[in-house]
Amino acid sequence: MPYRTLRPAALLTALLALAAPAAAADPIHNIVLVHGAWVDACGWKPVSDILTKDGFHVSMVQEPETSFPDDVAATKRVLDMQDGPAILVGHSYGGSIITEAGVHPKVAGLVYVAAHAPDVGEDESELGGKMPSVLAKTPGAIEKTPDGYTYLKPDLFPKLFAPDLPKQQATFEARSQVLAKADVFSTPLTAAAWKTKPVWGVVAGNDQIINPDLERFYYKRADAPFVVIKGASHSVYETHPAEVAAVIEKAARTVGAKTP
User: Fold this and answer.
1) Quick one: what percent of the chain has pLDDT higher than 90?
2) What superkingdom heads the lineage (predicted)?
3) What is the side-by-side strand order in the sheet with 226-229?
4) Residue 59 lies in a domain
5) What's the rounded Cα separation, in Å, for the pair 132 and 163?
6) pLDDT for 113-126, tens place per residue?
7) Is the pLDDT of residue 230 over 90?
8) Bridging pattern class, strands 149-152 and 180-181
9) Which three-class secondary structure string do you get for 172-207?
10) Does 17 reside within a domain?
11) What CATH number is given to the structural domain containing 55?
12) Is the dihedral of CA 54, 32, 207, 216 positive or negative?
């Protein structure tokens, strides 16, 4: 209705509404955290505690690590449970999982934390071979059971996976590993959510499991802003939870501002 047909009081109300600043957009409320190989979701507790304190609804996926499709299905199952859009976060092998599962309609953005981010048809084992890590150059570091499940040799776990964790904690994690089926690392991806969803990244500057240069390659290819946490090990989500949580919260705020 044109302003000239409005009564004075209605006209004033309309003009004030136009002049009023737009309300600040709320951040994405839901955060879904996906762990990597050989560990479980308990390692996310320091990050989860910060996010929860800051008002986010945090869910964690416990992948069985029995096959790549099983791990993607476990992630989609948790995404189905969210009451709205979510930021999907993956660490290490969890990055491959969120790349495939991130096409889920409830995923509003992705955060990679010292993580793999293959393209369609690629797998992390092939890509890791092109930019070898310290792990890849350490003979005998990865052991395999007779039925094809892998684990990191317990006496090398603290040195390679978590050199900046307290020794007692790193030793416990070495002894509580979730064994991962070997072919989870060599299954080619059929989807690459980072091509269509907003992406952020965290590089662990002293990562011995994934070459930090490979992490940079992934994030640059995805046109993702990323931070480098100097001196951080592969356990960056445990040793630098405030920095990791800050990236996740930035993603939630940024995507929230663009979500109707």
Assistant:
1) 87
2) Bacteria
3) 57-61, 30-34, 86-92, 107-115, 199-204, 226-229
4) yes
5) 19
6) 999 999 999 999 99
7) yes
8) antiparallel
9) HHHHCCECEEHHHHCCCECCCHHHCCCEEEEEECCC
10) no
11) 3.40.50.1820
12) negative
